[in-house]
Amino acid sequence: MSTNTNHEQPATGMNRRRFTASVAAAAGAVAWRPGQASAASPDSDTILAPSRQVNIVRRVDVLVCGGGPAGVGAAIFAARTGARTMLIETLPFLGGVWTAVGVSHLMAGRGRHGVNAEIHRRLPVHEVFGRNIYAIEDMKILLDDLLAEAGVEVQFHTRAVAAAKDERRLRGVFTESKSGLEFIEAKMVVDATGDGDVAARAGCAYEVGRPGDGQTQPVTLFGTIGGYRGQPAKGRALVEILERGGWRPSYPHVTLFPQPGQPGVFVLMATQFYGVDGTNVRDLSRAETLGRQEIRQCVKTFRQHGGDDWKDVFLIKTGPAIGVRETRRVRGRYVLTWEDLDRGARFHDGIADITAGSNVHSVDDPYREPPPEAGRARPKFRVQPYQIPFRCLVTRDVDNLLTAGRCISGDHYALGSYRLTGSVVQTGEAAGLGAALAINQNVLPGELDGKQLAERLQAMRAEHLAS
Ligand SMILES: Cc1cc2nc3c(=O)[nH]c(=O)nc-3n(C[C@H](O)[C@H](O)[C@H](O)COP(=O)(O)OP(=O)(O)OC[C@H]3O[C@@H](n4cnc5c(N)ncnc54)[C@H](O)[C@@H]3O)c2cc1C
User: Fold this and answer.
1) What confidence tens digit (pLDDT) does each residue in 50-72 have?
2) What DSSP string describes 175-205?
3) Contact 246, 266 (CB under 8 A)
4) Predicted confidence band at 35 (pLDDT cuts at 50, 70, 90)?
5) Which of 326, 345, 396, 444 is deepest in the core (most CB within 10 A)?
6) H-only helix segments in 336-407
7) Which residue puts its alpha carbon closest to atom 26 of ligand 1?
């Protein structure tokens, strides 16, 4: 699997080997020239795809790309601020890591106002290991309801594949779906794809991974099992059963999360794969296959060596998709650093207050203590309560493009803290509000008064107070 590297692009130039191109659009018609947009490896052969006219199927104020926790927050706040808002999502349901990966517990959202509070109030949850566990189907339906109530148009099965850009401004986004290649025109675009796909395609600078070698945190495939008669469990006790079967799982902190209302059904977290580039489809395909093999072996070993509690256990499903913790961090007007977290930085345009420590999963062999890095010997470390400034969401290189979620502008260690779902929802809320306010005030997001925006954000969140 490939090794990631850090990327720094000049604002005007493009590295065509690593980046998909922005497509300059002629007035009135949009030309698609994907021959410029090869994401293939540098030494592969290329072919020029034919130029063609593409239908503009929608004209909206705010287009949110990606329907994970960040995209959901962005779309709801943009729509509530009066913007005609559309959200596109490549999967057939909302939620991103909340639903697509199988992470079935809320974290870092309790006690926060706004969309986090609405979700906590309306989602049936059970507390296990201090975490709020929910049923994934409940989450999918709740998110459908929340976006419908806010008046957001949601289109599933739709991937953002390229951006049309005039100078420093996006005209909109090319999408690919069963309906073919289409174009959505938008005054403001929010990239909530987790991977910064739109920003990368629009030629924005980004960085990836750990300083020095660009290695990213591992990816994880979850499994769902039935027929287990024991209590929720995690860690050593579970690994010992697998060791009795003669092998060790790739993730040493194996965990079972019960599914509320489904006796005997548990989500199993047991895999981690290293050196996987989450934006490389070949890496992802291989990791999915390895993950399924390992989960199958896990379930078989639990059944054979786990005793009475495990004798009827069976695999219900894997995935649906492997979970990617870390890819592109798109360069914004401010880069949040570990030093900011360490000193508890506060900003006039602070849009989220974060207390969560940085949880950087080991990027190396998890059975060995990771080497000390920049004074931090362990991948988990405390931070002083700090803020994320709105400027981290305003891309440096494109004037009407905002980011939200794990692809915002920060360093590898800061990402380890702000990537938790409660926090990414709040970056989404800020991006959605910022996009809509910029349209209302006829300015660019980078020209908004950050202090006023932060105050308006607090007021909007206060309409849904945490219980
Ligand atoms: C294995 C794993 C375990 C985790 N555990 C926890 C935990 O316990 N607690 C916690 O708080 N956080 C956890 N996290 C972190 C957290 O889930 C993520 O950081 C968070 O979900 C990021 O939110 P996001 O909205 O930025 O991205 P995502 O949740 O990844 O959502 C991005 C969405 O965009 C869609 N998309 C992607 N590309 C495109 C495109 N080109 N066009 C259209 N749509 C697109 C995706 O399908 C997805 O729905 C975990 C993450 C992983 C991977």
Assistant:
1) 889 999 999 999 999 999 999 99
2) EEETTEEEEEEEEEEEE-SSS-HHHHHTT--
3) no
4) very low
5) 326
6) 338-343
7) 405
Confidence tier at 42 by pLDDT (50, 70, 90): low
Which residue's CA is the nearest one to ligand 1's atom 50? 325
Per-residue pLDDT at 366 = 63
Residue with tokens 């199993």: 268
Tokens of 257: 């999360």
- The answer, yes or no, to whether residue 217 has pLDDT greater than 60, is yes
Q: Please tell me the distance from the alpha carbon of residue 187 to that of residue 443, in angstroms, as a whole number.
A: 11
Q: How close is the Cα of 229 to the center of ligand 1, in Å?
A: 31
323 alpha carbon – ligand 1 mean position (Å): 7
Q: Is residue 167's pLDDT more than 60? A: yes
β-pairing verdict for 180-191 and 401-403:
parallel
Size (the chain), residues: 467
What is the spatial distance between Cα 27 and Cα 166, in angstroms, rounded to a whole number? 10
Looking at every residue in the chain, the average pLDDT score rounds to 87
Residue ID of nearest Cα to ligand 1 atom 19: 419
Cα(219) to ligand 1 centroid in Å equals 11
According to the model, what pLDDT value does residue 27 have?
A: 31
The three-state secondary structure class of 387 is strand
Average pLDDT of the segment spanning 397-419 = 96
| Mean pLDDT along residues 444-462 | 98
For atom 4 of ligand 1, which residue has the closest CA? 103
252 has pLDDT over 80: yes
Residues 6 or more apart whose Cβ sits within 8 Å of residue 238: 254, 255, 256, 270, 302
What does the DSSP 8-state code read for residue 98?
A: I
pLDDT value at residue 356: 77
Instruction: Say how many Å lie between the CA of residue 194 and the centre of ligand 1.
Output: 6
- CA of 255 from ligand 1 middle (Å) equals 19
Name 402's Cβ contacts closer than 8 Å, sequence gap at least 6.
74, 188, 189, 190, 191, 393, 394, 395, 431, 434, 435, 445
pLDDT at position 8 is: 45
Residues with CB under 6 A from ligand 1: 65-71, 88-91, 96-97, 100-101, 103, 105, 107-108, 159-160, 192-195, 197, 220, 323-325, 405-406, 419-421, 424
Q: What is the Å distance from ligand 1's center to 320 Cα?
A: 13
